[in-house]
Amino acid sequence: GGGVGRGPGGRAGKALGYLWACLLVVSKDYGRVMAERRVALRDRVALACRVMDDASLSASLRTLTHALVEEGDLSALLLTGLNWRAQVLLSHFLDATGDVQSATLLLAFLPHPGTQAFQYTREWVEEYRDLLDR
């Protein structure tokens, strides 16, 4: 069965991901290291900052950020920061999960009311208020 530590998401899967990433580093295949989902994003970014040249690093981070934002993966906040890109990320997150509460609570850290980003997300706040009123 799929017990703890088994399969791609378990400890064994993560350990294999890190082992695989080590082999990719030795072969200087940094692009594939950046794509290795079994390695934590913070570790992939830290490695890339140490071993990639500026142009490759910039291109890899752009590609990775775009992919994570499109998937609605909140770990992308590490790369986007809390700005307009985070609003796009939260929109994709909401589409993927339907988690209005998390998206709305994260909105509290985005630009203040009256800015363009806030206008697009005001309805999330209203939906969350409606949810709380039930």
From TrEMBL:
What does the UniProt keyword field contain?
A: Signal
A GO biological-process term: positive regulation of TORC1 signaling
Q: Which residues form the signal peptide?
A: 1-35
Top-level taxon of origin: Eukaryota
What cellular component GO annotations does this protein have? Answer: cytoplasm
What's the protein here called? Nuclear pore complex protein Nup85
Please tell me the species this chain comes from. Cryptomonas curvata
